[in-house]
Design a protein that fits this description.
- The structure is a single chain.
- By secondary structure, the chain is α+β, with helices and mostly antiparallel strands.
- It folds into 3 domains: 54 residues, no CATH class; 123 residues, no CATH class; 478 residues, no CATH class.
- Helix content is 31%, strand content 28%.
- Strands 13, 14, 17, 18, 19, 20, 23, 24, 25 and 28 form a 10-stranded antiparallel beta sheet that branches. Strands 4-3-5-6-30 form a 5-stranded antiparallel beta sheet, with helices on one face.
- Strand 21 and strand 22 form a beta hairpin.
- Helix 3 runs antiparallel to helix 4, helix 9 runs antiparallel to helix 10 and helix 13 packs antiparallel against helix 15.
- The chain is elongated, with a radius of gyration of 44 Å.
Length: 685
């Protein structure tokens, strides 16, 4: 319309007119000149411009005007469609969230039916008259691979990580495929709008530990362990340890008490605190989740450890909070979680926290623990131990990534131990091992009585591991079904010398240099024509390399737990054992009896006598040919003292130490510390 008026006004000056005889208003000279008039006449003739100058101008402006009208109408229609798509998407989002909330289990109901009904009701409320396609219940996880969608589908090329009709249902998918009412019926294009939304319950969180050493409380072992780790005498009662075990500490609460900014994984990885700060933060976090009696007992014990005299100064010993490939740390957290604070929203108990923190601190020390243990009257043992890889408390979501890596995985500590055992052989007379009398030559090999035998036993126990496989929160009774996949550590045993066992902490056990040791000193005597020609020491050098289990491999097992969120974890049976307990001494004795002890004679003493090489070679051949008899003879004598000593290694020394450190030979204690299913939903697509 505006264009029309503009055209009309433009045409007015080109319409010719004349006015003669009519009264005209007086004009000044200026105006007369402007309008082509003169004072002599009041009749003015206005010349018409040529028609050729204005030909076609109306059609052009009309076309422009119509184009603007069409553009305005199309823009209005497109804007309306975009508006309706936004409204459809908002409706789908809200419907999915409403449906996902109903996936929380209710006894006696089908969670999927309830979820679909809630989604449909919410959609019709937000957009009256809208009837949803059947919402789908299923499982959402970032590691899921979305099934292929047919090319003809309105929803092709989506990647929503949603598996419909999965056995475990934690999400619902809502799809809307609809053409909204049209504003301009004469537009005949495809106006179908396709939107979808996937909402999932917040991923469950679990915290686990493996081989923690607290599954079977033992007052004496724990006092021994704490005394060793703290460098001073600790004497806590069983009630004290039980009180620490019964506490519930929220890791996020501890981080807040430490006033740490852990909004990103880089910040969490950089977080470094002293042991004193960590224990004080644990004390501050105690009231959040525990009754007053538990808080009082645990706070008293932890404050007592903070004020111990002698030993480590806890304020001077710092540890990293996050365990990574580059550093030892307290916690193993799912590194693919976008929000580490969400991953930290789990619980541990104060005893686990204390023992793991102290072992992390010990692993960062260059000094290996050494202690002399008398096993008189049988033997003396020098024990040296070093944590190579720290144990960890793992917290995070269940499941595995596509490459098979567990999202949440805990490790036992990897430790190396040297048992330098000294055993006194039986007293009284020489024990002949070889006694050969020829016509001109006699050879005698004997073992002197009452000599001190050194038996170096190196043990490396590789990390056992436990992975949080599943946490199912939809049981009708409200309990959580948790599955943990676990495997015990593989123990490597070597009788011999490992010079770099405690200095080289990066090389794997198989790459460490290993040497024979001098098992026992023998005496060789060679007579020629009854005259003593050679009388010199001969060492019997040996080594033994074996693994527990004997196959050198361990099998992962699946352990199932039922977790009741309404009952304290300490009152539930949340500890299981994987593998079978092995005895170190029994394994060594069995390997020796099976002939796995690799021995050789060190005759370097004989080479110093200056005898003819050919003659000496014959003598050596004779000795070597009798090696099996020599070994059997030696072991026959040594077994009298070795058997009880090897037994004591299990019952009195190594097994208790390893158990206190959370490491067992051939098996592992796997603990579910906590599980959480908060039931809140979030949009994931």
């Amino acid at each position: 319309m505006l264009a029309f008026f503009r055209g009309y006004l433009w045409l007015m000056p080109v319409i010719g007119y004349s006015s003669c005889g009519a009264a005209q208003p007086p004009l000044s000279g200026h105006h007369e000149k402007a309008y082509g008039m003169n004072s002599a006449s009041n009749c003015t003739a206005v010349a018409l411009p040529s028609r050729r100058r204005v030909r076609g101008s109306i059609l052009i402006n009309t076309a422009i005007a119509m184009s603007l009208i069409v553009i305005t109408l199309v823009g209005t229609e497109l804007g309306y469609l975009f508006y309706m798509k936004r409204e459809f998407q908002k409706t789908a989002d809200l419907a999915a969230l409403a449906g996902a909330q109903k996936l929380t289990p209710v006894a006696g109901t089908d969670v999927c039916i309830a979820a679909r009904g809630a989604a449909a009701a919410n959609a019709s409320q937000n957009m009256p008259g809208l009837v949803l396609q059947q919402p789908e219940c299923g499982h959402w996880a970032s590691s899921n691979t979305t099934p292929t969608i047919p090319a003809t589908s309105c929803f092709k090329d989506t990647d929503d990580h949603f598996l419909p009709n999965a056995s475990t249902k934690n999400a619902i998918r809502v799809r809307i495929e609809k053409a909204p009412p049209t504003l301009l019926p004469f537009f005949e294009a495809n106006r179908t709008i396709c939107v979808q939304a996937v909402a999932a319950l917040n991923e469950p969180i679990g915290s686990i530990s493996v081989g923690s050493g607290v599954a079977r409380l033992n007052e004496g072992l724990l006092n021994q362990l704490l005394s060793m780790l703290l460098g001073t005498s600790v004497s806590l009662s069983l009630a004290d340890y039980t009180g620490l075990l019964n506490t519930k500490l929220n890791l996020l609460g501890i981080m807040d008490a430490l006033r740490l900014n852990v909004g990103t994984y880089a910040q969490l990885a950089d977080a470094n605190v002293s042991l004193a700060q960590l224990l004080n933060a644990a004390i501050q976090a105690l009231p959040q989740s525990n009754d007053s009696n538990t808080v009082d007992l645990a706070a008293r014990v932890l404050n007592g450890l903070l004020t111990l005299s002698g030993g480590l100064r806890l304020e001077d010993i710092s540890i990293n909070l996050l365990k990574t490939a580059q550093q030892a740390g307290l916690l193993s957290v799912d590194l693919n979680t976008t929000d580490p604070r969400a991953a930290l929203n789990g619980n541990v108990n104060a005893l686990n926290l204390l023992l793991v923190a102290l072992q992390v601190a010990d692993s960062q020390s260059a000094i290996a623990t050494q202690v002399e243990v008398p096993l008189q009257p049988l033997a003396n043992v020098k024990l040296q131990a070093k944590v190579i890889e720290t144990p960890s408390i793992a917290i995070g979501p269940p499941g595995y990534y596509p490459d098979g890596t567990a999202k949440t995985q805990a490790h036992t500590g990897q430790i190396r131990v040297l048992l330098d055992t000294k055993v006194l052989t039986p007293l009284g007379g020489k024990n002949d091992l070889v006694n050969i009398n020829l016509l001109l030559l006699s050879i005698r090999l004997s073992m002197p009585a009452g000599q001190l035998v050194n038996l170096p036993v190196y043990v490396e126990v590789a990390s056992g591991d436990a992975a949080l496989a599943t946490v199912r929160c939809n049981a009708p009774d409200g309990k959580y079904d948790v599955q943990i996949d676990a495997a015990p550590g593989l123990a490597h045993i070597f009788l011999g010398k490992v010079p770099t066992a405690f200095t080289n902490r990066t090389s794997p056990w198989a790459s460490l240099p290993k040497e024979r040791f001098s098992l026992v000193s023998l005496e060789a005597e060679i007579k020629i024509l009854g005259l003593s020609a050679v009388k010199a020491p001969v060492d019997l050098r040996a080594k033994l390399d074996l693994s527990i289990p004997g196959s050198g491999t361990v099998t992962r097992s699946s352990l199932n737990y039922r977790y009741d969120p309404t009952i304290p974890a300490s009152q539930q049976n949340l500890t299981q054992t994987v593998g079978t307990e092995q005895n170190l001494g029994a394994a060594i004795a069995s390997a020796i009896n099976a002939g796995k002890l690799d021995v050789e004679l060190d005759t370097s003493g004989l080479t110093l006598l200056g005898l003819d090489a050919g003659f000496l070679s014959d003598i050596l051949d004779t000795l070597v040919n009798g090696l099996i008899g020599i070994v059997n003879g030696v072991l026959g004598v040594l077994n009298v003292v070795l058997t009880p000593v090897l037994s004591l290694l299990d019952t009195a020394l190594l097994a208790p130490l390893l158990k206190a450190l959370g490491i067992q030979l051939g098996y592992a204690d796997v603990q579910l510390l906590s599980a959480s299913c908060d039931g809140n939903a979030r949009l994931v697509y």
